[in-house]
Amino acid sequence: MTYLERPADGEAEGLLVLHHGRGTDEQDLLGLADMLDPKRRFHVVTPRAPLTLAGSPGFHWYVVPRVGYPDRDTFDAARAALAGLYQELWERSGIEAARTVLGGFSMGAVMSYAMALAADRPPVAGILAFSGFVPVVQGWEPHFLDRLGTRAFIAHGRNDPIMEVGFARRARELLEAGGLEVAYYESDVGHQIDPAHLPAAAEWLAKL
Predict the structure, then answer these.
(1) What number of other Cβ atoms are within 10 A of residue 131's Cβ?
(2) Domain of residue 176, residue span
């Protein structure tokens, strides 16, 4: 996969992978690296989604037949591509899954949930989900039993017209019911990352 990197200042204490939203690319969230990690403790990676769609700009993680329910084939292909990327990063950096945070915006948040909560994936340290949802896909379901140490940060806008705030509230309920610790934030913005949530996300990440 194509990706960009922002190195840590010195030896990295963790790995932060930020997955962009629908129709953008690996440049989109790179600017968040220093806002989320101002002390540069993390090695930050921003991958490009593998899918292009006719008539739609940028790159996509999966096809959207209905919001909340990704197309299975393209969703599975994106998961396989990310699994390969993570393995490459872990081997090259020496930073294991237990010191990795998976985050993103919109579709990228969906993929963070999908990779962090899959039974066939190793547990990670954290999930950073801006304006996303836990997907419903045949053949995939969230798994919690062996990842109670995974923590989550969820932020969403109450006026989001694309992924309504109920998705975030259900994600919070699902994760907490599964035994995960969740930091949850809402504000009156639309489908965007609210800058007001970034200091809280940075504090959460630093403590993690």
Answers:
(1) 28
(2) 3-207
Mean pLDDT confidence for 6-21: 97
> Whole-angstrom Cα distance, residue 66 to residue 184?
25
Please report, for the domain that includes residue 155, its CATH number.
3.40.50.1820
Write the pLDDT tens digit of every residue in 81-98: 999 999 999 999 999 999
Q: Which two tokens stand for residue 57?
A: 């700009």
Residue whose C-alpha is closest to residue 66's, from 140, 136, 141, 165: 136
Task: State which amino acid sits at residue 18.
Answer: L
For residues 125 and 138, what is the distance between their CA atoms, to the nearest angstrom?
26
Indicate the DSSP class of residue 49: P
Say how far apart CA 193 and CA 132 lie, in whole Å. 11
- What length is written for the chain? 208
- How far is 69 from 50, CA to CA, in rounded Å? 18
Sign of CA pseudo-dihedral 154, 160, 165, 171: negative
- Total domains in the chain come to 1
Q: Is the pTM of this model over 0.85?
A: yes
Inter-residue contact 118 to 79 (CB < 8 Å): yes
